[in-house]
Amino acid sequence: MALQDLTDDIADLEKKLSQIEAVLDPESKKAEIADLEQQVAAPNLWDDQANAQRVTSRLSRLQSDIERLTGLHARLDDAATLVEMAREESDAETAAEAESEVARLRTEIEGLEVRTLLSGEYDERDAVVSIRSGAGGVDAADFAEMLLRMYLRWAERHGYATKVMDTSYAEEAGLKSVTFEVSAPFAYGTLSVEGGTHRLVRISPFDNQGRRQTSFAAVEVIPLIEDTDHIDVPESDIRVDVFRSSGPGGQSVNTTDSAVRITHLPTGLVVSMQDEKSQIQNRAAAMRVLQSRLLLLKKQEEDAKKKELAGDVKASWGDQMRSYVLNPYQMVKDLRTNYEVGNPDAVFDGDIDGFIDAGIRWRMQSHED
């Protein structure tokens, strides 16, 4: 790439970063940081542990945001210096180093730009993701396990904490269902575009005749409830069943009835939990996920009512949102955004940021239309 092109790219990225800052408003964040630092310094902060956790978490997140913006500005300045050095000394190695850094900066700044589109009520929350195998028998159960690995690898790439909360194994291979939590800033807003039906087309490894098989798995993403949310669930509205946790093949993994299944009678929502050590802990975790689902259901009902009042009859996007094709050709394609790649192995290894970014941009465009 010509040095002038690199200079133009750096100027373009500086302009884009300034536009992002206009949305993120770093000065207001700095003012909030100062206020939160005063709260953290208070000697009685941990008298209320829930509030202390909220304050320290928010402070850490805001400080990280400011450090990221400051760091990007510094790196853009350094990249411009590298370009000047390469120009003055006609140094091809320095020019190549500058080109690599500009490419990395473009990826990071475009990722930050996408995050400015996450302005939903619950977008900042942690996420609870559930995957259920659909039509396709053992291939669908195997596909559900492939998707679990994909999301866990994606989180690992970004340094996000994950916790598998409940797993229901299929008899032959794979998973009937799994629920896991992703703890990261904007985890829900980021992963919410992954919700829907995923489709896999491949030569089935479980078919001794080597036939092509199409299978399906459903992905659900909900925001994790916080202490400040008010979702009242009367005891009379739930049924609680206890059972023994099971592993692959159905074998029991403990000797006590510690796993918990809660059924919300008015809606029919069912939540199972078997990750924790005791029945009490599993019940508390299951109630938290149930409340999260009820919170999202309440918001969806409110949104539907608003659309009805506004006369908006436009259908929402279809359930089947992504195809993973391994045979007769190799491709993963999002059916809403038309974003596609020709390397399914990389996608199943967690390389899904392109799909997520395209989904967030598509959703924002859909809301504006």
TrEMBL record:
Ranges for domain Prokaryotic-type class I peptide chain release factors: 244-260
Top-level taxon of the source organism: Bacteria
Coiled coil start-end: 52-115
PTM note: Methylated by PrmC. Methylation increases the termination efficiency of RF2.
Short name of any one Pfam family annotated for the protein: PCRF
Function: Peptide chain release factor 2 directs the termination of translation in response to the peptide chain termination codons UGA and UAA.
UniProt-recorded name of the protein: Peptide chain release factor 2
Organism field: Luteococcus sanguinis
The organism's taxonomic lineage, starting at the top: Bacteria, Bacillati, Actinomycetota, Actinomycetes, Propionibacteriales
